[in-house]
C-alpha cells in the first residue's frame, strides 16, 4: 500500500491549467495515473488527443468539454469518459477543478503537429 500526499514538486503549471500528480508510476502506481486539474475562469486548454481513455470527474465549478466536435457542460459531481485518440479541448467558463484517471502509458498529440509527448504529471 502506498499513501500519497500532494507536494509542490508534483505540480505542473501551464498557461491554461495546473495539474497535480497523485497516483503515478513514479509514486508507486503500477498501471494507473490520477491527477487533479485546476483551471481559472475563462481558461481554455489546447486541442489535443490522448492515446488512452480518460475519466474526468469535475469536483468544483463547471467545465465545457469538446470531444470529436461535441460539447458538453460537466458540472461538479458529474463524470465524463473521453475515448482514446479523439481530439478534445477543455474550457472553464468559471473556475473549475477535476480529478482525472487514465492508464499510465497515455501519450498526447496535437492536430497538425508531428509526434507525441508524455504527460509529465501522469508519469
TrEMBL record:
Highest rank taxon of the organism: Bacteria
Residue ranges annotated for the Cupin type-2 domain, each copy included: 36-97
InterPro entries referenced in this protein's UniProt entry, alphabetically: Cupin_2 (IPR013096), RmlC-like_jellyroll (IPR014710), RmlC_Cupin_sf (IPR011051)
Gene3D superfamilies associated with the record: Jelly Rolls
Protein's UniProt name: Cupin
Organism expressing this protein natively: Streptomyces inhibens
Amino acid at each position: 500500500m502506498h499513501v500519497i500526499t500532494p507536494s509542490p514538486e508534483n505540480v505542473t503549471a501551464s498557461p491554461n491549467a495546473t495539474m497535480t500528480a497523485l497516483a503515478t508510476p513514479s509514486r508507486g502506481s503500477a498501471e494507473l495515473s490520477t491527477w487533479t486539474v485546476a483551471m481559472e475562469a475563462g481558461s481554455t486548454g489546447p486541442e489535443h488527443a490522448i492515446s488512452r481513455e480518460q475519466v474526468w470527474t469535475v469536483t468544483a465549478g463547471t467545465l465545457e468539454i469538446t470531444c470529436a466536435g461535441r460539447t458538453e457542460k460537466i458540472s461538479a459531481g458529474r463524470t465524463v469518459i473521453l475515448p482514446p485518440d479523439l481530439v478534445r479541448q477543455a474550457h472553464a467558463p468559471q473556475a473549475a477543478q477535476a480529478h482525472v484517471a487514465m492508464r499510465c502509458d497515455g501519450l498526447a498529440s496535437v492536430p497538425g503537429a508531428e509526434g507525441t509527448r508524455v504527460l509529465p504529471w501522469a508519469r
